[in-house]
Amino acid sequence: MRAFGYRQSNSDHTLFLKRQNGKLTSLIVYVDDMVVTGNDPEECAALQRYLSTEFEMKDLGSLKYFLGIEVSISSSGIFLSQRKYIIDLLHETGMSACQPVATPLEEGLKLSVDPNQVPVDKGSYLRLVGCLMYLAHTRPDLAYALSVVSQYMHDPGEQHMNAVMRILRYLKGSPGKGILFKRNNHFSVEGYTDADWAGSIDDRRSTSGYFTFVGGNLVTWRSKKQNVVARSSEEAEYRVMSLEKL
């Protein structure tokens, strides 16, 4: 790719970019799957011809499915979801017929490390949380719930497993949710942050949350427990703002 004039991204080494004449062409690769896109049709075609001389390739047409992410392109924009992944996950876990709930976590729920609670199979808990974390690519509504349940992967108990199963019940009622990228006439950047204060029962650390819009489209989001104990709610808010800048 470098020999063909492309630059490898520093943030993601599987992404290659080429800018010329004010246009951008990009290629991202995962093992033997590739996505080529950009606003320079001639360069996209030239890239495909070049790659076909180096590898045996098959053009599958417009992008519809990639690494478990479904892509729908319409006049409204580009919509990303993981509906099939969620349905398959519910089927594998025996939750296809479960009663759906309206929120990923029970309101006011405070999980903690409790040596007296009933233990659960650690391997099953790790696998479930790992499968759910992959949904974070298209489901920002799961960010906080996943940040909570992932904190107890070292020693899960019945209370923690119940919280994970509730996330599955939430997904049962909303398998088709995702992210829509619309074509807007601006590239303004907007960021929003929030934090609780001493929300963790175990260590009294606060939890940060932020999300960022570029051109009116959501591009980054995160929910994470802070590294140190904040001495006030104001300090917790300042810490989450510095985290977003990073």
Provide key terms for this protein.
246 residues; four-stranded antiparallel β-sheet
C-alpha termini separation: 30 Å
Number of helices: 6
SS-based structural class? alpha+beta
Shape: globular
Produce the secondary structure layout:
Blueprint: E1 7-8, E2 15-20, E3 23-30, E4 33-38, H1 41-54, E5 65-66, E6 69-74, E7 77-81, H2 83-92, H3 122-133, H4 143-149, H5 158-173, E8 178-181, E9 189-195, E10 207-214, E11 217-225, H6 233-245
Antiparallel strand pairs: 1-2, 2-3, 3-4, 5-6, 6-7, 7-8, 9-10, 10-11
Describe this structure in words.
The structure is a single chain. This protein has 246 residues and is of the alpha+beta class. The chain has three domains: 7-61, no CATH class; 80-173, no CATH class; 187-245, no CATH class. 29% of the residues lie in helices and 26% in strands. It is built from six helices and eleven strands. The protein has helices at residues 41-54, 83-92, 122-133, 143-149, 158-173, 233-245; strands at 7-8, 15-20, 23-30, 33-38, 65-66, 69-74, 77-81, 178-181, 189-195, 207-214, 217-225. The longest helix is centred in the C-terminal third of the chain and has 16 residues, at 158-173. The protein is globular, with a radius of gyration of 21 Å. 19% of the residues are buried.
In short:
This protein is α+β, with helices and mostly antiparallel strands and 246 residues long. It has six helices and eleven strands.
